[in-house]
Specification:
By secondary structure, this protein is of the alpha+beta class. The chain is 52% helix and 11% strand. It has helices at residues 28-33, 35-40, 43-53, 73-82, 91-101, 110-120, 126-130, 133-144, 155-171, 178-200, 205-210, 213-238, 245-251, 262-293, 295-305, 314-319, 322-334, 366-369, 389-392, 412-429, and strands at residues 25-26, 56-60, 66-70, 87-88, 152-154, 340-345, 349-351, 354-356, 361-365, 430-433, 441-443, 447-449, 453-458. Helix 9 packs antiparallel against helix 14, helix 12 (213-238) crosses helix 14 (262-293) and helix 15 (295-305) crosses helix 20.
């Protein structure tokens, strides 16, 4: 049955406070006591505090350093949409992440970001992406064909490889570069693990520097840049157009007609690889696990996809995958790849009835927002019917799987096309089950699953 959005509390008033002193503050000592479990997985700690203190609370992480955690929908909308100009990304992204993946649209701010977002956006228009659907489908079919049957496998590595190859094929069409792409994937994942350690153990940064660990990972970043530089050079020397994303980025021009500098182009490519494959692989893995765990959902999905012609018109196929889209949307509600968003205020602002000074660091918990019992009926359950077309708009004020506002994920349409084709083809060809009741989750830069055990049976 369709599930209606819960409306028992107004999003504007949930968790509000009249006095700043009424916002509960989690002490630095409490954080220190919980440091080991926070290092392993901070989400249970976040969930406990939201349960105890409401939709907004403050965490002290130093004598003068505090972070405001919120799942209050009106506050999230204000920061990401309504008053987004008063908020910037934190140094975690503009400095710490940028040192590994460069200064592209994910890690830049201000005029620099606006200029490059404007340049890159046309490459991700729906009309441009239609030309990549055949490439996308070929990569999906190649990666998923011949999966082992009648044995339990971890599907997550396969989804990670699939998503990386889809991005690679879409960027560098028809190239023989699997060895280069495999190395680029290794570097991306290795550097992410290092960044997470820096984030969760800031008191060890001096040791990471002194021991040479940061220097080692910066060297890996340079290796990745060299790989991409050679691929770009080969393309420019060949003078052949392939109709892929690289061609579109090479064609992009600033307002004065000049092309993007090579260094900036490499930065943008690294970010597309990092963000483009990581979040999609995670979302797909969670989605297939949930579908495997719910036979009723899988049967309805199979009834939809059994007649879809994936070898023909891919755009027509996508139009016939409405329930597949609902399954993916519900999976991203429960397990949003971008599970937290951080921002720093520029100027003071009054929110939820109290004032916050300029320079306040905010952590917007999309994971908790998507599971808030004030907003969702049966929030822990997997119910794709929530996102039937007649209901979908009702969730727009508190459903942000791709972020929101001007900095909403530039590749959201690309990712949805890829996930719908993948889920559709997989369920058309395989019946999937899982021996697991729950999944271990691993919140890194994005929300990753642990092992995703599946058993596949050819239909």
């Amino acid at each position: 049955m369709p599930v209606k959005p819960k409306t028992s509390n107004s999003p504007e008033s949930v968790g509000s406070h009249r006095n700043p002193r009424e916002v509960h503050q989690v002490s630095q000592w409490e954080v220190f006591k919980n440091r080991k479990r926070i290092l392993r997985n901070p989400l249970p700690f976040h969930q406990e505090k939201f349960g105890e203190y409401g939709n907004t609370f403050i965490v002290r992480i130093g004598p003068r350093k505090r972070i405001v955690f919120t799942r209050e929908p009106s506050t999230v909308r204000n920061i990401l949409q309504k008053n987004h100009r008063n908020y910037k990304k934190s140094e975690l992204q503009t400095r710490d992440l940028a040192k590994y993946i460069g200064h592209g649209i994910l890690t830049s701010e201000g005029d620099f970001w606006r200029k490059h977002r404007k340049m890159i956006q046309p490459a991700f228009h729906k009309e441009q992406l239609q030309g990549l659907l055949d490439l996308m489908y070929s990569a999906i079919r190649e990666e998923l064909s011949g999966l082992p049957e009648d044995q339990i496998i971890d599907i997550f590595p396969k989804m990670s490889d699939l998503a990386f190859q889809v991005v690679a094929q879409s960027l560098f069409r028809a190239g023989d570069f699997r060895e280069d792409m495999n190395r680029l994937q290794e570097i991306t994942e290795d550097n992410q693990r290092m960044l997470i350690r820096e984030m969760r153990q800031p008191y060890l940064k001096w040791w990471f520097q002194l021991s040479g660990r940061i220097g080692h990972h910066l060297g890996l970043s340079q290796e990745a840049r060299n790989i991409l530089d050679e691929l770009i050079e080969d393309r420019m020397q060949s003078e052949k157009r392939r109709g892929d994303l690289l061609d579109m980025l090479l064609d992009a021009r600033y307002e004065d007609g000049s092309p993007m500098p090579r260094r900036q182009l490499i930065d943008e490519l690294i970010i597309l690889f990092t963000a483009g494959h990581e979040t999609t692989a995670n979302a797909l893995s969670f989605a297939v696990f949930l579908i495997a765990s719910h036979p009723r959902v899988q049967q309805r999905l199979y009834e939809e996809v059994r007649q879809v012609d994936f070898e023909g018109d891919k755009l027509k196929a996508l139009r016939n995958l409405g329930y597949a889209q609902q399954c993916i949307e519900e999976a991203m509600r429960l397990f949003p790849p971008v599970y937290v968003i951080d921002r720093v205020s520029v100027n003071p602002e009054t929110l939820q009835g109290h004032s916050f000074p300029g320079g306040t660091t905010w952590l917007l918990s999309i994971y908790e927002l998507h599971r808030s019992p004030d907003l969702w009926d049966n929030p822990e359950a997997f119910i794709p019917e929530r996102f039937e077309p007649a209901l979908r708009k009702k969730y727009s004020g508190f459903y942000f799987p791709f972020g929101a506002g001007p900095r909403m994920c530039i590749g959201n349409v690309f990712a949805m096309n890829e996930m719908m084709l993948t889920i559709g083809w997989l369920i058309q060809n395989y019946r999937i089950t899982t021996p697991a009741d729950v999944l271990e989750i691993n919140p890194l830069i994005s929300l990753k699953p642990g092992k995703v055990p599946l058993r596949l049976e050819m239909r």
